[in-house]
User: Which sequence fits this backbone?
């Protein structure tokens, strides 16, 4: 569309036109980035993910206790106390304890007693959660912080 | 005195003058006034003034596209009515649905129509796509309208899915939990590559959908806004585009020799143009494509008023009658209130997603993201990869080869999906034999991907063997339909608690 001499390469009007298009695209991209930033809250609205699960003595040995109101299990082995998330790593259903470990009701994922995957579509074993001791002596589990499987809190 | 009598005459003429100011043309008895009835009316003017006799054949369109549009209208009206009572908050949503069901006059009926109308729309959209495909109506110049149609299919499913959460019952909560985690499933890939810490596409998508880590207040509001404002608006825009492109692409598709096959019109039919007019013909718009009427009379066309209008009214009434009849006898389901601690067992999505859920039960990423994207991409590309111009406007293409290939592909498609499913159900899959196998292997090698590979290989073999891209397209589309139907049936009827296989729901274990 340029009225400039075609022999001169990019003409003055072409350059201005390109600059205008560039400015338009840049502002559009900025607006889009802003629009996609909005739906990602910097603070999640849920209540605290930390939950007190009682003093170390109350944690059952070699069996699981489901923490009331939370999707997690606590237990005590020889190495110490640990917590396992009950949320299936496949699509987020809540697993149920069975004699051999855990079963997921939604798509049949199976885990052993330590949360390791033994069958079904789950991509990895159940998450282990961080256990800490609160100043008042009770144990606190943080649902928001996973730890490598096999991490125990020595009592 | 003269003014007084004039005033009396004006009062007497009131009904007539008001009517004439509203509708400027006379009774639709001449060709001209019939045309005016269409193009002078805001709501009708998207129609052509004259329509080809082929487009009016029930055996050709089956009114399926109109059923989709009619369902959308029914859903919009009932949806707005429901909004007067529905309260999108975690504490009130479930109770307000209960109120609509038990307290609001006709509330239960309106909700039933909304729920069953949504199901009808999904069925109609899928059948309409099949009709357009098997009559080769996606071919030039209608490629882009086929793409718009795929967008409308996605929007229909998105509207269904977003509406699913609103009752806030157990079914809703767990179906959407599963859906949101499917959105998160690209982590299967990023985890395997060890880059989730830097590029977390899955996490981003889940947060975008839920506004939180789990399904809660924010997710409910997001789904509500998507369902009642955002998606219907986008849907309206694309429906407008879709209808408009039908006109611009030269009306509904029809075979090149449609005129000869239709023969002369019956004598009692409102005048049919069969000859070229003596003078040059005034066109409302210059239409591109093979049916451009420049310099010719609009042969073998009937006035849209009354022929197309009565046909459309009939389809609208049929749609309404079916939804109302179902809603009268069947109540929309409502389970217990959502409980984030106890999942439904089995937790099933609505039926049209159960085929997806069946392949998701092998790998979340492959079944929930990879294969749907491949399928949709394949559907979008069909008109660009098959550009043979023959066979437009005929079921399966008039030649007998099309019908044969469709039949063969249906047999192959059914056999393949049943064999793969039966194998996976009977013998399990890789993880059952090698528990330590990395997930990434299963993501790319599972019954879903194997089935897709078989279908693609089969259709490529058809393209080579039959030397026709159209027959290859018929092969892959028929296989896809067969797979979709079988997987949906398996997910709906043969999967029970823990997603285990049962021959019938009556054999499910009792808790």
Assistant:
């Amino acid at each position: 569309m340029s009225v400039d001499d075609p022999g001169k390469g990019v003409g003055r009007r072409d350059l201005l036109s390109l600059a205008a298009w560039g400015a338009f695209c840049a502002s559009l991209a900025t607006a889009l980035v802003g629009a996609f930033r909005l739906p990602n809250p910097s603070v999640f609205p849920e209540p605290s993910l930390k939950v007190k699960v009682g003093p170390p003595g109350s944690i059952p040995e070699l069996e699981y206790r489901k923490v009331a109101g939370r999707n997690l299990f606590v237990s005590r082995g020889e190495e110490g106390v640990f917590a396992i998330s009950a949320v299936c790593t496949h699509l987020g259903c809540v697993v149920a304890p069975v004699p051999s470990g855990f079963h997921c009701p939604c798509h049949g994922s199976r885990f052993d007693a330590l949360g390791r995957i033994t069958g079904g579509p789950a991509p990895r074993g159940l998450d282990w959660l961080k256990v800490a001791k609160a100043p008042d002596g009770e144990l606190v589990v943080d649902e928001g912080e996973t730890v490598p499987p096999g991490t125990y809190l020595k009592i | 005195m003269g003014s007084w009598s004039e005033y009396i005459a004006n009062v007497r003429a009131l009904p007539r003058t008001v009517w004439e100011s509203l509708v400027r043309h006379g009774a639709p008895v001449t060709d001209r006034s019939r045309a005016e009835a269409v193009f002078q009316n805001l709501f009708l003017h998207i129609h052509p003034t004259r329509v080809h006799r082929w487009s009016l054949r029930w055996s050709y369109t089956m009114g399926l596209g109109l059923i989709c549009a009619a369902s959308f209208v029914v859903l919009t009206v009932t949806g707005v009515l429901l909004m007067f009572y529905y309260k999108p908050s975690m504490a009130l949503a479930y109770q307000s649905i209960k109120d609509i069901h038990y307290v609001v006059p006709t509330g239960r009926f309106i909700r039933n129509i909304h729920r069953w109308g949504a199901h009808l729309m999904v069925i109609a959209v899928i059948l309409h796509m099949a009709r357009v495909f098997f009559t080769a109506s996606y071919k030039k110049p209608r490629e882009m309208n086929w793409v718009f149609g795929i967008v409308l299919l996605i929007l229909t499913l998105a509207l269904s899915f977003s509406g699913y959460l609103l009752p806030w019952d157990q079914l809703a909560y767990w179906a959407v939990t599963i859906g949101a985690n499917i959105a998160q499933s690209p982590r299967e890939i990023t985890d395997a590559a060890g880059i989730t810490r830097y590029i977390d596409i899955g996490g981003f998508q889940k947060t975008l959908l839920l506004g939180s880590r789990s399904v809660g207040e924010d997710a409910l509001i997001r789904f509500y806004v998507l369902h009642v404002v955002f998606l219907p608006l986008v849907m309206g825009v694309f429906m407008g585009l879709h209808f408009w492109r039908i006109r611009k692409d030269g009306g509904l598709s029809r075979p090149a020799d449609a005129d000869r096959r239709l023969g002369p019109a019956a004598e009692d039919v409102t005048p049919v143009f069969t000859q070229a007019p003596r003078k040059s013909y005034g066109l409302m718009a210059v239409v591109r494509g093979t049916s451009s009427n420049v310099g010719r009379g609009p042969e073998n066309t009937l006035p849209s008023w009354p022929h197309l209008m009565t046909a459309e009214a009939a389809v609208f009434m049929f749609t309404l009658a079916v939804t109302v009849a179902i809603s009268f006898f069947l109540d929309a389901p409502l389970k217990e209130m959502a409980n984030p601690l106890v999942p439904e067992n089995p937790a099933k999505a609505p039926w049209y997603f159960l085929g997806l859920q069946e392949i998701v039960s092998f790998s979340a990423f492959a079944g929930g993201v990879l294969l749907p994207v491949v399928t949709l991409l394949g559907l979008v590309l069909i008109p660009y990869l098959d550009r043979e111009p023959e066979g437009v406007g005929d079921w399966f293409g008039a030649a007998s080869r099309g019908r044969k290939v469709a039949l063969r592909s249906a047999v192959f498609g059914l056999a393949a999906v049943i064999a793969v499913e039966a194998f996976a159900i009977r013998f399990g899959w890789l993880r059952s034999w090698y528990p330590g196998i990395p997930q990434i292997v299963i993501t790319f090698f599972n019954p879903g991907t194997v089935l897709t590979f078989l279908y693609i290989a089969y259709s490529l073999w058809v393209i080579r063997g039959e030397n026709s891209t159209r027959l290859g397209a018929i092969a892959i589309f028929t296989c896809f339909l067969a797979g979709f139907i079988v997987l949906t049936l398996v997910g709906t009827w043969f999967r029970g608690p823990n997603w285990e296989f049962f021959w019938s729901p009556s054999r499910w274990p009792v808790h």
Observations:
- The interface with chain B takes residues 36, 39-41, 44-46, 69-71, 90-94, 103-108, 117-121, 123-124, 144 of chain A (CB under 8 Å).
- The first strand of chain A starts at residue 50 and ends at 54.
